[in-house]
Amino acid sequence: MSLPALACARVYGPAGGRGCWAPRRVRAPLPSKPPCSLAPPAGFCRRLIGPQAADRGERSEGKPVGLYEIGTRHPSVPPEVYLAPGSQVVGEVTIGPESSVWFNAVVRGDVLPVRIGSRTNVQDLAMVHVTTNRFPCTIGDEVTVGHGAVLHGCRVADRVLIGMGAILLDGAEIGEGSIVAAQSLVRVGFKVPPGTLVAGVPAQVKRALSSAEREQIVASAQRYVKMAQHYRTHLRAAQFRPAPPPT
């Protein structure tokens, strides 16, 4: 008997229980599965459809985008907000004009609200969430949330830069015009004074920001507003193309 004929598969007994391993060619049919009893009720969580499909590079009219309502909580996102492909906005999430949520970032207001101001960018792989019955999440205007950052049940004032991979825990408050350094951990309830740099695990106040650094925070927000406009009009699905021959 050839090796392919001896590819093993589990055989099920008459009552649907586990049997022995046997050659695939003698495999018994699998038992039918009962319908899942854990399915959510109709309309519990559904994907929204709208004109923003065009903003995400999904050009077919009516194609689903990453906006979801759950129960009675639904997102409020104006058309000028850019949602990159793969981003997910769930539940009671309000986002201001000219803001952007980038590739594979998640903003989840499923149990309490999330508020994001104007000209704010939530970059790739970032996570914004809330804490049940305790802490919503609020992010101000002209805020940059760096790649892979986690903001959980916290409050971020206007013109703040959250570095890549930083973590902000429940009840943390970041004052206006501040910077949270990359990979920092802002512990539960920690309050960052306005205009300061915090860094470390756990994060500590290091110093006051210079005027140039505060200007860079605003410049970062403005740069992402322009980048979102560029992506809105130029992002398209690409076709596979063979590599050019070596020269």
Explain what the structure shows.
This protein has 247 residues and is mostly beta strands. The protein contains one helix and 22 strands. A hairpin with a 4-residue loop joins β21 (196-199) and β22 (204-208). The relative contact order is 0.09.
Topology:
Layout (H helix, E strand, L loop, with lengths): L7 E5 L5 E6 L21 E5 L14 E7 L11 E2 L4 E8 L4 E2 L4 E11 L4 E2 L4 E3 L7 E3 L4 E2 L4 E3 L2 E2 L4 E2 L4 E2 L4 E2 L4 E2 L4 E2 L4 E2 L3 E4 L4 E5 L2 H24 L13
Parallel strand pairs: 4-6, 5-7, 6-8, 7-9, 8-10, 8-11, 9-12, 10-13, 11-14, 12-15, 13-16, 14-17, 15-18, 16-19, 17-20, 18-21
Antiparallel strand pairs: 1-2, 3-4, 21-22
Q: What are the salient characteristics of this protein?
A:
single chain; 247 residues; mainly beta; UDP N-Acetylglucosamine Acyltransferase, domain 1; 12-stranded mixed sheet; 8-stranded mixed sheet; 22 strands; 33% strand
CATH C-level name: Mainly Beta
The main pleated sheet reads as: 12 strands, mixed
Supply Rg.
Answer: 24 Å
Averaging pLDDT over every residue, what do you get?
A: 83
Low-pLDDT stretches? 1-26, 33-44, 49-64
Percentage beta strand:
25-35%
Distance between the termini: 50 Å
How many separate domains make up the residues?
Answer: 1
Helix content: under 10%
The CATH topology assignment is UDP N-Acetylglucosamine Acyltransferase, domain 1
CATH architecture: 3 Solenoid
**Number of distinct beta strands:** 22
Report the CATH superfamily.
Hexapeptide repeat proteins
Q: What structural class is derived from the secondary structure elements? A: mainly beta
**Total count of helical runs of at least 4 residues:** 1
N-to-C SSE string, H for helix and E for strand: EEEEEEEEEEEEEEEEEEEEEEH
Morphology call? globular
